[in-house]
Amino acid sequence: MDTPSDRSNLVGFDSSPEMTRYSCARCNTRIYNQSHIQLHGSKFRDFPAAVLVNDDTVEKLRKAGSLKPTLHLFYADRVMDVKDGLPKFKEYPGTELLDES
Fold first, then answer.
1. Angle 59-78-91 (CA atoms, 0-180°, nearest 5)?
2. How far is CA 41 from the centre of its chain?
3. Per-residue pLDDT of the chain in tens (101 residues, 90 and over written 9)
4. Which of 1, 7, 45, 63 is most exposed, with the fewest beta carbons within 10 Å of its own?
């Protein structure tokens, strides 16, 4: 997914040298986190699950193939199993890989 060219409604801060976190400039709701490290050949962006629920825009992005997951973070703390063939990290990339069960 490309970085939005218009981020006028977003506020970003570097939480570490590896990550920039973006929130809504008006209400401070977290929108996404952008990594500055390479993983599986590219930088990654993660979205809190709450911003991906019941949103027509998100569904349009999914159908267009623009919003496609590539891995799971914090899978040890999951609330449900996901069998999709993607890597499932115990915590962050580079930590233990877990089974799909």
1. 100
2. 16
3. 445 556 678 899 999 888 899 988 888 888 888 888 776 666 777 777 666 655 666 666 667 666 677 888 889 998 888 888 989 999 877 789 999 87
4. 63
- Burial of 67: CB neighbours in 10 Å, binned 0-12, 13-18, 19+: middle
Which residues share a beta bridge with 24? 10
b/e per residue, 18-33, with b = 16+ CB within 10 A? Answer: ebbbbbeeeeeeebbb
CA distances for 61 relative to 1, 29, 41, 55, angstroms:
10, 20, 22, 10
Q: How many residues does the chain have?
A: 101
Q: Which amino acid is at 2?
A: D
Q: Which amino acid is at 66?
A: S
